[in-house]
Amino acid sequence: MSLLERLGHEVVFPEEQTCCGQMHANSGYDLEAVPLARRFVRVFDEHDVIVTPSGSCAAMVRDGYPRLADLAGDDALARDVAAVAPRVHELSELLVDVLGVEDVGAYYPHRVTYHPTCHGLRLLKVGERPLRLLRAVRGIELVELPDALTCCGFGGTFAVKNADTSAAMLTDKLRAVLETRAEICTALDNSCLLHIGGGLSRARAGTRTVHLAEILASTE
Q1: Residues 124 and 155 grouped into a single domain
Q2: Sign of the CA dihedral 45, 21, 114, 220?
Q3: Span 158-182, mean pLDDT?
Q4: Which pLDDT score, from 0 to 100, does residue 220 have?
Q5: Per-residue pLDDT reduced to its tens digit, 93-150
Q6: Which of 54, 76, 98 is the last residue of a domain?
Q7: pTM, entire model
C-alpha cells in the first residue's frame, strides 16, 4: 500500500475479502472454491483496479474463475467474472502496463537475485516486467539466477503430497540462489518465497527472501 500511495494513488483494502480459493481448486475441491469466487467478485465489483502482490492469486481469478463458473453451471458468476477479472493485476503488471511506471523511486542497496514464479511465467506471462522494475531501483546490484525458469518445488499442496520430489526441486533452486552470492532472493509470490526462504534458513545460508513489493517500497 505504501508504494502505491507514494505514487499518488488511493488504496482501499476491503475487509470482507478472503482467500481466492486457489488452495481448494489446486487440491481438487473445485466446487468448494466456487463460493469463494462468488465472494471475490461481489467484494471487488465496485473497484476500478484490483491489485494483488501474488501472481498465483491473479492467475486464479483470471484463468481459474471462468473454469469454476462453467463447472458450477453458474451463468451469473460467469458474467460477474468476465466483468471483474480484467481489472485484476499482479503488482508488476499494474505498475508497468496500467500506470506506465518503471522507476518507482526505490532505493535498495543490496545484492539481489530474482526467481520468476511459475504462475507469473506460465499463466500471467509477466515476462521482463519485474526485472525492469528492479533494474530501475537505485543502489541495487541485480544478479541473474541460474536456471531461473525452473520451479522451486512448492506448488501449493504439491509440496505436502509429494514432499520428497518437492524437497529435491528446492535443493536445486537453493543451489542456484547460493551460486549468485546474493543477499536477497526476491519473487512475486509469498508461497515461493516461503518455500525458498525456509530452505535458506534451515541451511543457515545467510541469504533471505524479500517480496518484490517490499523492495519497490523501500526508499532508504
Answers
A1: yes
A2: positive
A3: 94
A4: 79
A5: 999 999 999 999 999 999 999 999 999 988 999 999 999 999 999 999 999 999 999 9
A6: 98
A7: 0.92
Q: Which residues pair with 52 in a beta bridge?
A: 90
Of 101, 128, 103, the residue nearest 114 (C-alpha): 128
Please report the pLDDT score of residue 15 as a whole number: 94
Number of domains in the chain: 2
Q: What are the CA-CA distances from residue 187 to residues 68, 70, 104, 151 (Å)?
A: 27, 32, 17, 12
Residue 158: its pLDDT value, please? 84
Residues 79 and 142 in one domain: no
8 Å CB contact between 16 and 174: no
Residue at 103 is within a domain: no
Asked if residue 104 belongs to a domain, the reply is no
**pLDDT for 156:** 81
The length of the chain, given as a count of residues? 220
Residue 22 lies in a domain: yes
Cα-based distances in Å from 82 to 50, 64, 107: 14, 12, 38
Residue-level pLDDT at 155: 85
3-state secondary structure 130-153: HHHHHHCCECCEEECCCCCCCCCC
Same domain? 118 vs 39:
no
C-alpha cell read off for 3? 508504494
